[in-house]
Amino acid sequence: MKKTTIALAALLSAAVLAGAQETLSLELAVTTALENNESLARSRIDLEAAERAVGVSWNGLVPGLSLGAGTSRPNDGVESTYGRAQASLTLSSGLLSAGKQARLAYETALLAYGTAERDLELSVRKAYYSLGLSRKNITLIEQSIASAQKSYDQAEAKRKAGLAPELDTLSALVTLEQLKPTLQSARLSYDDALDSFRVLLGMDGDAGVDIAAVDEADIKAIDVAGITAVSPSVSALEKQLAEARATLSAARSSVYSPSLSLSASYQPTYAMEAWSDSGSVTASVSFSLDDLLPWSSARSAAATAQDAVDKLESQLASARTSAAMEIGSLARKIEQSRSALESMRLNETLAEKTYRLTEEAYRFGTKDILSLQSARDSLARARLDVSEEAYTLRAAVLDLEYALGVPFGTLGR
Q: Cβ distance 259 to 91 under 8 Å?
């Protein structure tokens, strides 16, 4: 089932990339971005490089091999021809820690890639909702233009009937004409945002794409008390600290651990029409006394590694505190936004009723054109406030999901 879903998403993404007009759902937009975003592709290359490094981290255990051949004629005039084969291997504490460090580096790269995916998904979801807000704004302006046109037609009819002054008609016309550049500006802003969205999804600039309709948020109360947070920043520092501790361990081992060298050679020689051979096997243990000196480079490297560990431990403690504070702040922001959205929806209902009553009163001549325009502006502002607060609420929930490390779309349902 999962393979079928991935294949379907890939086909839809290919259709979008080919330039066909596609209406993207939010989830398909996320899938398309994860498959085609250029920045994420570069992170994937880093991950593959770290994986290759793990695969060859054992190569220090492979002995060095060499083959050679030659001929010589010393002063006694006896010419000899020889061949040589040699193998050597040096074992040290650094060789043993290299594999561990490579694995830690791969885990860090894997975490960084996962964080890059999360960052991209967060950006796509926010951009998607932002496009929905921009399109809603365009719709509201279009509705305001339609209402302004209707008001102008009414004012002109009343003027011709001698029931309203010419100033009302002129005022209604000015209001109508002022809304048209606002609509053009909103459409241009939407087109620019859509271009940026294409780049985020890894699409060509001329790819035909649009988003599906975005409903207003209906977010339920969120309780984060029972959720174990997995902050991306904290996780990254934990991996960096593990790497730093491995580096420190390797640096200390290099100071106090000896090195073991093994070598073997074999040399057959042909001289005076006869073959002879010789060979040797050597094993040696060495220990650098210089590394024990306080001013040695090895001791200095160990001290530097200790400093790095101390700094990362301090950063990790601060990051954990900051992450907890951020989660609490976002939870409070969501509750405040939910309350504000509820209030704004009531205000929108009131503004709609006020406008209808004012419009009716204007038709009967008990309200002037300025009152009608004011009521219409209040309604447009109330509707836009609801849309903007709904976006703010969605964005805050996304930020909280990101900070907690939970899948997007799981909170507030």
A: yes
